[in-house]
Amino acid sequence: MKFCSACGAQTEYRIPEDDNRPRHICTQCNTIHYQNPNIVAGTIPVHEDKVLLCRRAIEPRHGYWTLPAGFMENQETTTEAAMRETWEEAEARVNIDGLYAVLNVPQIDQVHMFFRATIIDGMFGVGVESLETRLFSEQEIPWSELAFPTIKKTLQLFFEERRLGAFSVHVMDIVRSPR
Amino acid sequence: MKFCSACGAQTEYRIPEDDNRPRHICTQCNTIHYQNPNIVAGTIPVHEDKVLLCRRAIEPRHGYWTLPAGFMENQETTTEAAMRETWEEAEARVNIDGLYAVLNVPQIDQVHMFFRATIIDGMFGVGVESLETRLFSEQEIPWSELAFPTIKKTLQLFFEERRLGAFSVHVMDIVRSPR
Questions:
Q1: How far apart are CA B160 and CA B92, in angstroms?
Q2: Rounded-to-integer distance, Cα A158 and Cα A138, Å
Q3: Could you give the CA distance from residue B17 to residue A117 in angstroms, rounded to a whole number?
Q4: Mean pLDDT per segment of 10 residues, for chain A of length 179 residues?
Q5: Interchain contact A176–B (C-beta under 8 A)
Q6: Is the ipTM of this complex over 0.90?
Q7: Mind telling me how many Å the CA of B46 is from chain A's nearest CA?
Q8: B66, B56 Cβ separation under 8 angstroms
Q9: Shortest CB distance from A75 goes to which of B102, B109, B111?
Q10: Least CB-CB distance to B79: which of A4, A6, A171?
Q11: C-alpha distances in angstroms, A101 versus A38, A148, A167?
Q12: Is A58 in the B-facing interface, judged by CB distances under 8 Å?
């Protein structure tokens, strides 16, 4: 941020009074422009014993497999965002079965939230941000071709707990590089 | 947003190509400025059978009681944010016992996340954003003087489940006005 989005004047990066970390502050109107982490919301869309993955048609990680997920928008709830992304990327309507994983990715200022979900009528398609979509059994998951560490971690836990017969809710930190 | 934070030129509010909702877009450098919900992270700080609340020294809801919570910062995790806010508002160090509630507040573009927590050594103080802090038993909670619906809902569930002897994780929507 170089310019104030309220008045167009230049900003400077300094610690405001009564604060303890630097912010972008307008040199003219003194507006403080806070920057905060973004939520990425998605689902683990299940049909029978399989999980629906999407092969990415966009960067980053073009060509790699992901769970349907994307940036939560203003005026939505986390579940609405997860369901919308599942429709946009995989053309699947889902019922949400519960929150499953909250993954902190502090090095890129993101929090990823995945919900367990059941695909309605087992129907899905290929959204514009996907090259293809496919149902995978646990044995078929392309582990070496997954797009992000958050996807790998979420799927590992999901299959492990499914074998044990009980899902819990996980809060995890992804501390290494996300790619 | 009226001006581009990258180049200082005026922005316009329109739907970009390949998108389906309006964004602030720079009329000169074409940067698209996305706006997304913010996370508010906090704790339910417990000592013996009591919960620590803070009476707010700041607006909104000056003088009303709240759980310690505040905006998550870049480069932190949700649990780090919750612990930092608990220190800043109530000068309590806590151990996190688990995620408890995710409350969607879409009308103000926020997601509130509360963690169950235990106050280390039962020690606490009064942070600069608090008028006072105090441990409350369930019977003592000032229900009519709580600052926000998310606080009331979280405390109601917490005490109800504590009586039942089992905590789960809750995802809820707060759909009415937040104040």
A1: 24
A2: 10
A3: 30
A4: 96 94 96 97 98 97 98 98 98 98 97 98 97 98 97 98 97 77
A5: no
A6: yes
A7: 20
A8: yes
A9: B109
A10: A171
A11: 16, 14, 10
A12: no
